Every structure is written in structure tokens, then in C-alpha cells.
User: Fold this.
Amino acid sequence: MKIDALRFHNVKRFGGRGVAIEGIGDGVNVLCAANEFGKSTSFEALHGLFFLPHSSTAGGVRNLRPYSGGNPLVETDIAVGGARYRLTKKYYSGGFAKVVDLASGQLIAQADEAENFITRLIQGGAGGPAGLLWVRQGVTGIETRSRTEEESDRQVRTSLLESVQGEVEAMTGGRRMAGVIAAATQATAELVTATGKPKAGGRYATAIALRDRLAEEALQLEKEVAALRSELDQRSLAQRRLAELEQPDARDSRKRDIEKAEAAFEAAKSQADRLKTLHAELGLARERRDIALRDLRQFDGALADARALAEDNRDAHRRRDEAVERRRSTSDIIARAQADGEAAEQEEIDARTLLERLDAASKAREAAERRVEMEERLRHGEQLRDTIEGCEAQLSGLRLPKGAVDELADLDIEIVRLRAVQDAARPSVRIAYDPAASARVTMAGVALSDGEERGYDVQAQLIAPGLGTITLRSNRAERDDTRLTQAEGQRQTLLASMGVADLATARAQEVRVQGIEAQANEARARLSIVAPDGVDALRQAVAVLADIAPADGDLEADPAEVRSQREAAVQRRREAVQVIRATEPARAHADEAFVAAETRLASLRTREEQVVAILGPAEGREARQQELTERLADREAVLTKAQQAHDEHAAAAIDLDAADAALRRVRSVEQAAAIEAQQLRENIAGWSARIATKSEEAVEERWRETLEARDAAQVRVTAFEQEVAVLSRLTQALESARADASELYLKPVMNELRPLLGLLFDDVAITFDDRTLLPHKITRSGQEEDVDRLSGGMREQLSVLTRLAFARLLARDGRPAPVILDDALVYSDDDRIERMFDALHRQARDQQIIVFSCRQRAFQKLGGNVLQMIDWVP
Assistant:
């Protein structure tokens, strides 16, 4: 396959534009241009055409779409054998793919058929030869990449080497070896995953699942068999226990124990009731004795209180009389001080009123003087504001739009430039007369001077006396330069919007506006001095001053003398307040003493009433005391007798709690035996039912059968494990054998690479990695080095040379594919890059190579067919 042309429209930075690269030939083709010119875009457009389906909206297609949106379109002309085709793809809205035979113009495939046609061309998609030989910008192919990308490229290289080399020692390399390895790999993949785990849905995984399921069923059945045996043992024990509980001797013994305990409880209960009665009688006797004792003690205490109350009453009356005298004297002092303070306060009020009248008169005189000043400032401020308003009125009709004058000036300059361009582009005529000639040639009735150059538009006529008329034609279409017309139209529109005739008038009006604005600014500055807060605020201040009342006319008092009188009155009022404050604590103390004395007298009267209520009249107090003493003695004797009877009966009583506990114990024994017997009967019935059910299900037989099936499944799993191990061992052995034959296996690519290496390096040998089939180590001057530790320039040179070698192998295999390099030599020095150019031309004898680069000076020495990017309309 060979590429003849590439065209694309609305791709990446070429939004709304079309670009074409025509005339791509055999050998080396070079497109050199500056950065951002579109070289990498061309590469990606070509890559998208071959590898991205027209119906896709994946990341690669999204990257082709410009930021402004739209539908990318890519087409290329190719030659395959003796036929030429045009491949076209459009993405997103209205997307399509089609293949046209350029010889006949016939559409031979479209949509999915066109995609299949392209897939057959590139033979393997991105993992095919084109994906192997097309080098993106910044990618060498030697650097570390993802596992999927490396494996894809490795398979392409392997397939190519096998195809070229043929059968290399029946089972140590070549296609038969690859077929056996592929078969072993496929068989292994049917059983396990890449990580060695059983593959889901495979035979190995199914056998493991069956074994695990049977093992789980066997475990469950084993639990059921163990449960059945446990229930048989439990039922036997329960039957023996039930027989023990239901023996007649045991039932009779429990009945006799209950009857004996009930008789003992009844006797203890009768004795307890008698003891409760005696206890109640004892409590009543003790209560009556306590009442008699309390009454006697209360009477004796009241006698003592009566003797103390007499002395307390005398002392309380004395204290009350003293408090009343202190209250009277302090009240007189406070009354006199209050009278003096009130008189002084009235004098202070009179003096303050007189001072306020004097102060108001003074402020009224000052306000009248300030009002005159403010009225003058108001008049001046109103004049300034009228000036500002007048200026604003003039400016509203004269002010031009911002930037309009500069825009008009730019338009005038542009019109002059466009007219000059037109004049320069017009054809002209000039005549050099012979010195002896007397006649003059005329043009449009005007004679042409010697050496004078005169221009014309489409046609001009020269009249030469004695010769005739000479007609001159420019033989080109009249220039249709709409830019001058548009510029003149814009100028007229702008002049109309500004209301002026030309730029000079606009400039003069702008100067006038600036003068008026200066006058208005000066008036504003003066107004800010005269009326900082504005004319309205100044007018309000004048109105406030006008509202102040005029001063009283006849006030003859001296303000200093009035102030002295007010201060003397204030001092007398303060002295009166001090007297009151000094006397009030004494009066308050007297009030507290009086209240305390009255309170104590009231309390004494209450206590006296209580004592009289207890003792009664004075003449009967001795008889009352004798009566209380005798009653206490009688109740003490009754209490002693009741206590003796209670103690005697309590000593002979039976313990009621013990009898009750014994009765409850024997009853609980009988009840527990009945409950246990009933529970045993229910359990025995349940166990019997479950045992019968499981016996019918043949649980033990099913358990033995499941164990046998599980063992058989384990045997099958073991067989699969052995099969996986054998396949893995076989694959390793075959890979090892192929690695041992790698020198012969890689001989074709080494034969192609050796002369290319000789162009660049002296005494350099390359070792390929058996796994990736890429350069792994180099040996120079007897020292071995890893490729990934080489300089960036040498790595990219090895990458390009290796791809050229594989491209030659593809051509020999009947699958020629172009080599496309997008800025693939960016780290090479001047000497090495010229040698690389030689290598490219050496391989390009029967190979198409397309190079994109931004290094214009360096790639001038590459030579080859120089490509150009031109505009293209689909």
C-alpha cells in the first residue's frame, strides 16, 4: 500500500478549514514546517482514517474534533498493487465511510463494508504493520509502555518473523513452534486465567464448583446424621427419667410431706395471730404512758416559762420607750434640713431660669449675624450651580461618543491607505519621446509629457498624431475591493452619528467640549468650597437660622452675679442633703429598734398566752400537777403488765416464716415434678416425630452417597490440576527451546538492520529481547549496555532503524506499508542525523517513507520529495 495524497477538513486546530497534502510519491517524502503548523494534526487525521470507525465517538475521535465543534472529514488517495482508491470518512453528524475506485469513479464500498476494506488494507488494525511502522511524535517504541501495547507489537513482530523465516527446525521456531505454543496457550486459557486462577465457566472451574458443592452437601448431611443420633440418645434418657418421676411410691411420699407441712403452718399461724393481739395491747399501753409523761413534762416546763416571762416583759417595755424617743429627735432634725433644702432648690431654679434667658438672648444675636453670612454664601452657590448646569446643557449637545474621534481618524487613515493601494495596483503608461519628435501623444484629451507616468483603470486610448489611436487594456477583471467602500460607509455613518462634517470639525468640537468641561470643573471646585454639602443643605441651614427667635429686649441682670447666687443656692441644698444623709442612719436604727421591741413584746404576749393555756388559773395549778403525776404512775403499771404477758407468749410461739418456707418447698417439689414430667412427654413426642421423618428420608444413605460423589469430583479436579501443570510445563519448555534458537529466529531482521547500523555506528552489535523482539542490549568496544540507559538520541535512532528493518521484511512478505515518522529525530546531533538521512534513502529504494518535522534547517539536508500543505475545499 502506498499513500498518494491526504486531505482533511474541520480537524483539531483547522476548525472550518480544509487542508490537502498532494503529490506524495515513492521514496522519501518530507513535510517541514514550524510548530503549530499542522504536521501532527495531519498524522492524527491519517491515523484516524485507518484505525477509528466512522461511527465511533471514543477518545480518539473526540481528539480530532475542534473546540468549536463540527464534523471532522478525512480522505486519502492510496495505491494498492495496480489499483488506486480514495478512502473517505466523516465523523459525528452525518458520519459515513466510503471507498471509491479512482480509475472508474465507482463507489465500491461504504459504511461497514468500507470499514472492512480498510481493515484488510492495514491487516490487523492498530496492532498490524501500520501500527508498527507509524511513529507518533515523542514515541520511540523502546520506552516502557503498557502491557497490552507491548504484547500487541510483539505479536506483530513475531508473526512477521515467522512468515519470513519459514520453518526453522521443526519444533524450535517458526510457524509450527508458534502453532504448538498457541495451542498450548489456548488449552491453558480454557482452564485458567492469566494469573493461574480457574477460568469462570470453564471445565476446571465447573469441576471445582461441583466438588465444593458436594463437600458442602456432605457436611450438611453429616450434621443431620449426628443430630439424628443425638436425638435418639436424648429420647432414651428422657424416657428413663419420666419413669422415675411417675413411680407410685415417689408420688405418695411427696403427698405426705405436703400434708405434714400444712398442719405445722396452721399451728404457727394461730400462735402468730395471738401474738399480734398482745403486741397491739402492749403498743396501746406504751402510747398512753408516753402521753401522760408528755403532759407532766409540758406542765413543768410551762411553770418555768411563766417565771421567765415576767422579767422579759419589763425589759421589752423599757427598750420600746427608748426607741420611740430616738425616732422623735431624728425626725425633727430631718424635717428642718428638708425645709432648708427646698428653699435653696427654689433659689437655684430661679437663678438657672434667668441664666437660660440671658444665654438665649446672646445666641439669638449670634444667629442673626451668621444668617447674613449664610445668605451671601447661598446666593454665590446658586450662581455657581447655574453655571454648572449651563455647561452641562451645552455639553449634552456637543459631547462626542468616547473614542469616536480616534475611530474617525483611524478610518481616514485606512481610506487613504486603501486608495493608495488601489492607485498602486492600477496599470500605467509612460512615453519617452525621441528628441527630434515634435508631436505629443494625448490621453483623454491631455498631452503626455516626456517621461510622465499616468495610470488608468480598465481601458485607455492614446492618440498619436500621424500614427493613429492606441487602445490599452489591462486584461484583468476590475478589482472589486469592497474594503474601501465599507470603510467610506463606516466613515459616513460615524460622521452622521457624531453630527459633524469631517475630522477637523470633530477635533474643533472636541477642543470646545474640553474648554466647557474645564469651566464646569472650576465651578464645581468653587462650589465645593462655598457649599461643601451642597446648595440644598446650605439653604436648609439658612432656614434653620431664620427660625431662631429674636432676643428679649430688657434683660439688665449681670450673668456673673446670677451664677454666683445659683452656686450659693446649690451649696446650701447640698449641705441640707448632707444633714439628711447623716441623720437618716440614726433614724433608721431607731426604727429598727422600735420594730424589734414591738416584735419582742408581741412574741412575749404569745408565749404568755400559751403558758396560761397549759397551766390554767394560778389557784388550781398545784392540784393539776398532782393529778398528772398520779396518772403517769397508773399507766406505768399497766405497761409493765402488758410487756410481761407479751414476752411470755413470744417465747413459746412457733416460727411462722420457717413453717411457711417448709410448706412452699414441699409444694414446689410436687409442682416441679409435674412440670418436668409434662415437658418430658412433649420432648419425647417431638423427638419421636423427627426421628421417624429422618428415618423415612434415609439421611445416612444419602450421606454415604454424597461422600462417594465428592471423592469422584475431587479425582476430576486433581486431573485438571495435573493437566494445567502439564500445559504450563510444555509452554515453558517450548518457549525455552525457541529462546535457544533466537539467533537463527532473529536472523532476517538482523540481516536488514546490520547495514543500517554500519551507517551510524562503528563496531556496534545489538542483542534482541526474546520476549519483546526489540533491541535489548548493545555491545560496543567490548562493553555491554542496556538500551534503556542509552542517550535519548541513540534510543530514537535505534527505534527508527529497527522500524525500517521491519518495514523491509513486510515488503518482502508481500505486505508493503509506508513508514510515517512524526518528529521522530529530535535528539540526534548534526552528524548522526545526516547518517540517518542516508539510512532513510537507502531503505526508500522500494519503500515509501513520509517524514514530518519542525526542524526546517536540519531537515533541509534530508532531500527527497518536499511536500506542501495547501487549502482544500471538500
About this structure: Residues 124-132, 137-145, 159-174 have pLDDT under 50 and may be disordered. The two ends are 24 Å apart (CA to CA). The chain has 21 helices and 21 strands. The CA atoms of residues 241 and 626 lie 82 Å apart.
